[in-house]
Amino acid sequence: MKFVYAFVLAIGVLAMVAPAGADTLTLKNGDHLTGTIVSSDVKQVTLKTDYAGDMKIQWSDVQELNSQEPLYVVTPDHGTVNGNLTLEGTDLVVHTASAGEVRVPLSRITVVRSAGDEQAYENSLHPSLIEQWKGGIDVGFALARGNSDTTNLNTAFTADRKTLSDEIGMNLSSIYATSGATASGGATGVTANEILGGVHYNHNIRKSLFAFVSGDFTHDALQDLDVRAIYSAGLGWHAINTPVTTLDLLGGVNYTRESYSTGATATSAAVSVGRNLPGLTVGESLMHKFGASTALTEQFIFYPDLSSFSQYRFSLDSGLVTRINRWLGWQTSLSDRYVTNPPIFGTKSNDVILSTGLNVAFGRQ
Fold first, then answer.
1. DSSP notation for 19-52
2. Is the separation of the CB atoms in 138 and 333 below 8 Å?
3. Do β-strands 111-113 and 133-144 pair in parallel, antiparallel, or remain unpaired?
4. How does pLDDT run across 223-258, given as a tens digit for each residue?
5. 3-state helix, strand, coil in the chain (%, to 5)
6. What pLDDT is recorded for position 182?
7. N vs C: which end of the chain shows fewer Cβ within 10 Å?
8. What does the alpha-carbon distance between residue 328 and residue 364 come to, in Å, rounded to a whole number?
9. Residue ranges per domain, the chain?
10. So what's the pLDDT on residue 245?
11. 3-class DSSP state for residue 122?
């Protein structure tokens, strides 16, 4: 019998002690809620409970509030106050360690963060260079043998690191194709051999204004282009900047270096041509999400020569990726590079790469 009394007493003590370390909310209808305050904004407070998960409660329904752990209250002027919280009327009272009680009207609350969320936010302001990268690797392959004899391989790589103050982006794509002898004859040898790449860095000057530097690189064996390097610098504008859609417009100047060469043949000597050209850089970059699993990216850059505006180059890169799961998806990409009047006789101005295949993602998408 004594054991039963002791057991009941222990249960009663635990019932009284367990909520002692919990945050409490008393609603105007008399309901008494316990849990952990995890976040808040000007309209509502989120209470994490063991019995009902995360509960979002309108401030207008709250009569009393007490937090057992210090929280971080952020106001529209980016001021941050830290301390335990209580509620008095329409004011959130922050009991700070150094400044005593600080009253913050509910109408002036931007966000309330837990200690863990505040630490994550602080880390996001100054991440190391190896953090916050995301991107993917694309691979497509086709092989035919028998009456046909072809091999096609296309690959792509993208990586992007975006913080509150800057962004670094890199991209690389390639295509290689060969055709062998068939019963009906036809051309044999390498039918495509092209590598495209780029890197850019944006730094925010203001909320919607940024400065950028970038490099765009092209190698095209069938155009006899060893390398085309376009180095740009200028200013950009975040015309749209939402979680679903971003649109950047940019303009600046560039320096272009091109190197073409051909090997010697039985009927002609080797040819080598180099060009150094100043130019302008004008373009846009778009990202749009279609639901939770599909995203479209697109960038178009136009490079008119300053020495002659009838001469120009442009680059177009776009991609559509649909996620199958967290790390695997299906991609379709299009890249186009154009140059007016390529210096090697008989080569064409335009080269397009269209590919589709698997996408393996890394980082948080």
1. GGGSEEEEETTS-EEEEEEEEE-SSEEEEEETTT
2. yes
3. unpaired
4. 999 999 999 999 999 999 998 999 999 999 999 999
5. 10, 60, 25
6. 65
7. N
8. 13
9. 22-125, 133-362
10. 96
11. helix
